[in-house]
From TrEMBL:
<feature type="region of interest" description="Disordered">
    <location>
        <begin position="1"/>
        <end position="21"/>
    </location>
</feature>
<keyword id="KW-0804">Transcription</keyword>
<dbReference type="GO" id="GO:0003677">
    <property type="term" value="F:DNA binding"/>
</dbReference>
<dbReference type="GO" id="GO:0006351">
    <property type="term" value="P:DNA-templated transcription"/>
</dbReference>
<protein>
    <recommendedName>
        <fullName>Xylanolytic transcriptional activator regulatory domain-containing protein</fullName>
    </recommendedName>
</protein>
<keyword id="KW-0805">Transcription regulation</keyword>
<dbReference type="InterPro" id="IPR051127">
    <property type="entry name" value="Fungal_SecMet_Regulators"/>
</dbReference>
<feature type="domain" description="Xylanolytic transcriptional activator regulatory">
    <location>
        <begin position="161"/>
        <end position="234"/>
    </location>
</feature>
<keyword id="KW-0539">Nucleus</keyword>
<dbReference type="Pfam" id="PF04082">
    <property type="entry name" value="Fungal_trans"/>
</dbReference>
<dbReference type="InterPro" id="IPR007219">
    <property type="entry name" value="XnlR_reg_dom"/>
</dbReference>
<dbReference type="GO" id="GO:0008270">
    <property type="term" value="F:zinc ion binding"/>
</dbReference>
Length: 540
């Protein structure tokens, strides 16, 4: 591959996004104060049911934090007694967390000064007992920690969420949930609930490790629990099982690619190939109820969109190191002297295609009014895709089919839309992408203008774009090469011929592209960008 450099070897001051820990200024109580209540009022029966249903319909098929029947029964008991749950029980805490997450998932607009559901969440946190008490409370203690983790993710407290997920995982290990014969379950329903809860906590920990660039807490080799299965009284397990499989691959990527110290070059490249092959199999075997046809205008459900977003984030995680190395060489004006092997070019194309498909899914969610205004996974996917587009635009000329400019616009527009609804972390992510573009001299006209009061949504969908300005929509044809390319199936490096090429390639060459000494990569966007920026703008 030969491409023109995007910029000369300049040395601007480095300004990199940091792993933020609190966009909303969420004020957690330092110590429990049971004599003070942060709760304004307990929701009535109708509102309680709406909040519970929001969790079940939005994330209930891909995650499982509690047995819905038990929570529904407990809410019914509260309504029957014309009151609320007594504040001295663990049920009081768990129901408050359900309300907090339900409020967050149903919120369309917020005042930006706090997180939706904050009063419920702060009251719950004020009542949570010590870890020893939570541990001895059994399964309910793990449920509570899982719910706390989810809310903290959405509140942009990823470091805190990683800590809580790790504690929940260790409690689950102590209870033996990682073994089918571990936890004491008296009924089939209990076994199903415990199994699904285990895998949900497992997924949380894997993805938060990737988001924060931190190590995993447990190896897959010690896990003996079966994947979720269908059971009477529970929703079908297909979506949850698929989500678990993707999370397992995320863990393998962190361990075998980003934590590959001591591996031989041949073993390392075998790991890369196996991971891509497993992701391809998941893509090809997506459950029929959730499969998406990318050859036509997208129609998605919330569950199908989540599964594809998780899939594409896993693909990006395993292939993005190649783009980072290419961007480093492009800025240093060395790329034009390099002819890439076909396997390396395929890895780069796979990463960019995954970002494009991510953007298509997100735009379809927006068009169908399913985009989570205050969720975590949608915002994370937008930022991840935006980072890939920034790297692509750095590597390839604007006229190239892999140019990232159109994708950058789409991601900035989506982030601005979330911000207009009161999502504060989206404004931070938007500024981060703009700052990256400015430091790399990408499209001055794109980045110099801050958003005005009007909301603009770049809906790159089936060779057309929906632009929304002050609530008025109009369909606008897009003819640039990037949109046309997005109509094609996702490029996979593990086509049969290319698989042989990848494993038959000079493993030393491929290993160097992934593990070049100049870039110390963790998988977290902020720290990987910092590593890249430090290297390319290093004085001298």
């Amino acid at each position: 591959m030969s491409a023109e450099p995007r910029m000369g070897n300049k040395s601007p001051s480095i300004e990199t996004p940091r792993l933020r820990d609190d966009s909303y200024g969420l004020s957690l109580p330092d110590f429990p104060n049971v004599n003070h209540s942060y709760l304004q009022e307990w929701p009535d029966e109708e509102r309680s049911e709406i909040l519970l249903d929001a969790i079940l319909t939005s994330i209930g098929r891909v995650q499982h934090f509690f047995d819905p029947r038990s929570v529904a029964d407990r809410l019914a008991m509260c309504s029957a007694s014309n009151g609320q749950e007594p504040p001295t029980t663990l049920w009081y805490i768990e129901l408050l967390l359900v309300f907090a997450i339900g409020d967050l998932l149903t919120c369309k607009f917020h005042d930006r000064l706090s997180t939706p559901g904050e009063s419920y969440f702060i009251e719950a946190m004020n009542r949570i007992p010590g870890l020893s008490h939570l541990r001895t409370s059994g399964i309910q203690g793990i449920e509570i920690l899982g719910l706390v983790t989810y809310y903290l993710q959405c509140a942009d407290r990823r470091d805190d969420a990683y800590v809580y997920a790790g504690v929940a995982l260790r409690m689950a290990l102590l209870m033996g949930l990682h073994r089918d014969s571990g936890a004491a379950a008296t009924t089939r329903s209990d076994k199903t609930h415990q199994n699904r809860l285990w895998w949900t906590i497992y997924m949380q920990e894997r993805r938060l490790a990737a988001a924060t660039g931190n190590p995993l807490s447990v190896d897959d080799e010690v896990i003996r629990a079966a994947l979720p299965r269908d059971a009477p009284g529970f929703c079908a397990s297909e979506a949850l099982t698929t989500n678990v499989k993707i999370a397992k691959i995320t863990g393998q990527t962190l361990k075998n690619i980003y934590g590959s110290i001591g591996q031989t070059e041949q073993i390392f490249m075998t790991h890369v190939q196996n991971i891509l092959s497993e992701l391809h199999q998941i893509s090809q075997n997506m459950p029929a109820d959730f499969a998406v046809d990318f050859s036509q205008q997208l129609r998605v459900t919330r569950t199908s969109a989540t599964l594809y977003l998780m899939l594409y984030q896993a693909i990006i995680l395993v292939t993005r190191p190649i783009l980072l190395q290419l961007a480093r060489q492009a800025v240093k004006e060395q790329l034009q002297n390099i002819i890439l092997s076909r396997p390396l070019e395929s890895l780069a194309e796979t990463c960019i295609d995954a970002a494009r498909h991510t953007l298509r899914i997100l735009c379809a969610l927006k068009q169908q009014q399913l985009l989570a205004n205050f969720g975590f996974s949608d915002l994370d996917a937008i930022f991840s895709a935006g980072f890939v587009f920034v790297l692509a635009e750095t590597i390839y000329p604007s006229s190239h089919r892999h140019s990232g400019l159109s994708g950058i616009r789409g991601c900035l527009d989506l982030l601005q839309d979330l911000n207009s609804h009161g999502n504060r972390p989206s404004a931070v992510r938007r500024r981060d992408i703009i700052q990256m573009c400015k430091q790399l001299n990408i499209a001055e006209s794109l980045t110099n203008t801050e958003p005005s009061g009007g909301v603009t949504i770049g809906d790159i969908e089936a060779a057309s774009s929906v632009r929304v300005n002050n609530g008025q929509q109009k369909l606008q044809q897009e003819t640039d090469a990037q949109v046309i390319a997005m109509e094609q199936p996702l490029h996979w490096v593990d086509d049969i011929a290319e698989s042989e090429m990848l494993l038959g390639q000079d493993t030393h060459d491929l290993h160097l592209w992934y593990n070049h000494d100049s870039l110390d990569l963790t998988g977290a966007i902020e720290t990987d960008w910092e590593a890249l920026a430090t290297e390319i703008f290093r004085s001298g």
